Structures are given as structure tokens and as C-alpha cells.
Amino acid sequence: MKKLELLAPAKDLEHGKAAINHGADAVYIGAPMFSARKAASTSTGQIEELSRYAHLYNARVFVALNTILFDHELKEAEKLIKEIYESGADALIIQDMGILEMNLPPIPLHASTQTHNTTPEKILFLEKAGFQRVILARELSIKQIEEIRKNSTVELESFIHGALCVSYSGQCYMSHSVCGRSGNRGECAQPCRSAYDLVDGKGQTIVKNKHLISLKDLNLTGELPEMIAAGVTSFKIEGRLKDISYIKNIVSHYRKQLDTFLEGKTEYCKASSGRLVFSFNPDPEKTFNRGYTSYNIHGRQEKLSTYYTQKSVGTKVGKITGIKGNRLLYTGETLNPGDGICFFSKENELKGFNVNGFENGSILPSNTQSVYEGAVLYRNFDIRFENEVKQSLDNRKIPVEMKIAGDSTKISLHLTDSDGNSVSQEKNLDGTKATNPSHAENMLKTQLSKLGNTPFFLQSITIDLLDFPFIPVAQINELRREATELLIQERLNNYKREDYITEPNNYPFPQKAIDFRGNVSNHLSEKFYQRHGAQILEKAYELDNHVNNEVLMETKHCIRYQLDACLLTNKGTTIKEPLFLKDQNIRYRLRFNCKDCVMQIVKEL
After folding, report:
1. Is the CB of residue 101 less than 8 Å from the CB of residue 132?
2. Which of the two ends of the chain, N or C, has the fewest CB atoms closer than 10 A to its terminal CB?
């Protein structure tokens, strides 16, 4: 049976445990250094504790060490990788190919989406080079994933939810160009979320101060079955910088989706253990999002940019019908004190307020700035839902069968979990028989079933006792605690981490020459590519003095398409090239490769 894995982000130990408790089969967490989300790095101590917790449920922990490295960092990175392996991590997510030239522990390697994984040839190369998994580019369609699957056997991981980089991952140099903060070094300043003017070659402004290259968020809820059929087995949620409510809500949502898919299937199974009980109804619309898109999974079908705002708007709840003093007359869904409300002003700027009070269709807002009669309101913070999510804690339990046997002198408690792990624990008794066997049996069942603070829940219990003994409650509880502690240790002892030794080879790289977009930033990555037959034409963008006329990003997002000016679908468009993005300091030229539906952004002085 093929295992289907739900992979969740973890900013730290707390977020990682929350992800596992809400249904993740695996979590990915940042290394103490060299993580592509520098603000979400953690310690090896937290990785060790998270690994122990995850392994209890047969879940796995992957550590992201996925920035490019400079020469002076190689020794420290190699030492850190060994510490990560010793902490119990199951795999290492990397971007820098120089790592394959290091003296590595036997830890499986996953090729980060930062390695620009877009073609069957590239994915096959990564498999041959020693990777056990490839994280696919977000831009790929179902058809492209199918072609990749036909061409290789490596595990395929794909993003299904969360924020979208407008550029192909690993191929964006805009942040470094603007302010010296490199996305490939984990420090992206997100200039793509800023507002720009769109101007033509004559300097005339076509669009003023809009978020032209800020994309909506990804949501592939409805595409999971197609992705599974195409060959994806790991489904990744973005969000190592997101709050814990996001983790609980989105992980629970996709856990339910995958479990529904798995019902009645004999060729697929869940990748970890335990049953989930949901204390709230997951809803992606109630978590921070910029509006959702299925992106390119079925090819270009929709406009992608957030345009008016890069912030979360939320869901429409109603509109203002009047203003009376400091209160707003309103028609729509019931609101609650503490809700966050936003609306677009008459100038199309996103404004908002908190609900301080609500009764009889009247809102007492925290402020009335820019509010007007007829304004459509959106709720981007639902206090009632947030409280439900906040109270959701320990939802994941492993089924256990109990059998207690013996007599008035000795009893033994035998536990068997749903994965076949078994333990036994004994207790000596003083030979006293129960005066009321029926009452004693009920009391025994009640005390043994109290597994609330453990990872287990009681599925069934068998009692086989001769001359039903008198067993003090304290002894029953002690027996139960000792047996469950033994079972926890047995599960951890029986967890088998998959080791893999990466052996260097010279399988040919699909490109003969590599420019700065190969992100070669140290002598070991040079060595790697040269051994695989590729010539290094340029070092990484972060090392060379690239100033002008370089492609800062390539993207499947097309501003022409966004403005109904696509040259393929609207030949009567009046928008003429050249086109430029412009802010207060920099002008960027736009280039359009209509054959491949790709737009390039080029910096100009």
C-alpha cells in the first residue's frame, strides 16, 4: 500500500506538536542555522524533543537546512547536519548541492523546491544524484507532474496550501537586489508584496499603486485525488511563520480531506498512526488568507494577484446600511465582540475596525475611520472560531486493547496497540477476594479506562480473573500508569528510522552550463556540478556584482493576463510594450515569453 503523507510546517516545538495532534503525518522545521525561513529557526534540542513526540505516532520530522552556503559556513553546516541526525530527525531538506560533497551521516536528503524542480530531466537527475524525495515547483500542472512520475521513481512532494511566491522558488533575486536580503539565504524582504505603478514606454501610468505581483494563497483542497493519481505522495502545507491557529485549522482541514479519500481504498493508507477527534469544524476561509487560487494545477485559468491589498480580507459578512452617531447600522451575519472587520474605502484602500459591541443589527466599532453607508464588510478575524481552535489540544489517540488476568495473589495487565506493539506489567496482591465481584469489576474497568493524559484510548478490555480479587484503586492506577509508560517506550523502541548513505556519482546534469541562477555559492557546489559534467559560467547572484539588466525573477503570473491584455487571448488590446513596474526608487522592465506563459522581471537603473 502506498502511504499518503500530510506534511505540516512547524515554527517551533509547540507548533510541531500541534501539527501532529491535529493529524500531520510529518512536520518540517527549520534548522538552527541555514534555513530558508531564518525567522523560523529552532534548536537541536527542540528537534530532538519533537522527533521523540512525532515518532510515538509513527510520524516523521524533516529539518530544513535549505539556504545556499558560503565557503566559510561549510564546516559549521557539516557539523550541524551531524547534530541534526543525532537529534533523531528523519530527513534533511536542502538547496545547496555542496552538501552532497560533505561527509554526511546516513540521513535521507530531500531536494527543496528552492532547487527549481520543474522538469522530468531535473527530477531524474536529483534522484540519481542521491535524493530520496523531490519537492516539486508550485507552478507545475497535473499533466507535468504525471510526466515527471513516468520518468522517475523518487518520492514526490507537492505544496497544497499557503502563501505563494510569485517567482519560481530559488530563482528570485529581487529582494537581494533591492536591499541585500536574499531569499536564497532565508532573508527575503518580500518586495513582491509591495504596491507598484505599471507604466508604458512613454512613461504613461496604466495602473497606479496596486499590488501587481502579490499573489493569492494556494488552496488545492479539490485537487487532492488528481494529485494522488498523478503520483504525489506527500502533501505539503506552507507556513513556518504562521500562528498556531493556522496550524491547527489547516492541518485538521486536510486531515479530514485525506481521510475521506482513504475510506474504502486498498491501494493507499495513512502514513502515521492514531485516530483524530475534531473538537471544531476546520474552515480554511477563517484563517489568514489573501484569497485562494488553485494556481497552475490545471494550467492558466484565473487571475492571480491580490491587486488591491496584500493583506487578509476574510469572508463577506454583510454591509453598512447607515451611520448613527458612533454606531453602524448593519445587515448580514451575526457578529461578536472581538471580531475583526475590514472593508474597502471609497478610494479602494483596505480599512478595518474591531467589533466592541453588537446588538439588533447595530455595530459599536473601535473606530469609524473611512466607514460609509453601503460599505461591504468582511470578517478577517472570527473570535468565536479562534476560541474554538485555541481550546483544541490533544485530539490524537492510539487505540489500545487491554487484557487483565490473574487471581487474588497476582495480576498482569497486557496492552496491545493498533500497530501490534505489546507490553505486560504485573502486580502482587495480598490474596484478599472482592466481597462484591460485580462492583469490583466495574470499578476496575472504570479505572483502567482513564487514559486521558496518555497518547492512548481504550478500544476494548478483557477481564480474566479467578476468585475476583480485591484491588485497591491506587494499585489499579499504578498498574495502568506503568503499563502505558512501557507501551510508550515500546513504540519508541520499535520506531525504525530509515537511514540512507549518499554516495557520489557522475550522472550527467541536464544542463551543460550554469549561470548565476544555478545558485553556486561555494567550492563544494562547484565541485558537485563539475563532477556531473556542468560548466559554471557565473557564481551565485549573492556573490557577484550584478547591477543591471539581469532577470530578477521568472513567474507564471502574467500582468497582461491580469489586466485582460493577454496577447494570445485578447489580440485587440491597447496596452503596448515595453511595460515597466515602478516604485519610488527603481524601475523594472517586464518581458513576456508567451510561448511558455512566463513573465520575467528585469531590473533597470
Report:
1. no
2. C
Write b or e for each residue in 378-401: b if 16 or more Cβ atoms lie within 10 A of its Cβ, otherwise e: bbbbbbebbebbeebeebbbbbbe
The residue behind cell 513526540 is: 53
Q: Are the CB atoms for 183 and 36 separated by under 8 Å?
A: yes
Q: Quick check: pTM over 0.85?
A: yes
Q: Which domain holds residue 432?
A: 399-494
**What's the total number of domains in the chain?**
3
How far is residue 106 CA from its own chain's centroid? 25
| 98 found inside a domain | yes
Q: Provide the CB-side half-sphere exposure for 415 (13 A, CA).
A: 27
Omega prior to 578 cis, within 30 of 0: yes
Q: Cell 516604485 maps to which residue?
A: 583
As given in the structure block, the three cell numbers for residue 492 are: 519508541
Helix (H) or strand (E) holding 147: helix 142-151
Q: Report strand pairing: 396-406 vs 275-276.
A: antiparallel
Closest among 16, 9, 321, 318 to 135, alpha carbons compared: 9
Q: Assess whether 326 and 251 both reside in one domain.
A: no
As a whole number, mean pLDDT of residues 468-497 equals 97
The whole-number pLDDT of residue 548 equals 57
- Of the candidates 370, 426, 382, 386, which has an alpha carbon nearest to the alpha carbon of residue 403? 426
pLDDT tens digits, residue range 505-550? 999 999 999 999 999 999 999 999 999 999 999 999 999 766 556 8
C-alpha cell at 418: 493498533
**CATH code of 112's domain:** 3.20.20.70
Confidence tier at 584 by pLDDT (50, 70, 90): confident
Write the pLDDT tens digit of every residue in 258-298. Answer: 999 999 999 999 999 999 999 999 999 999 999 999 999 99
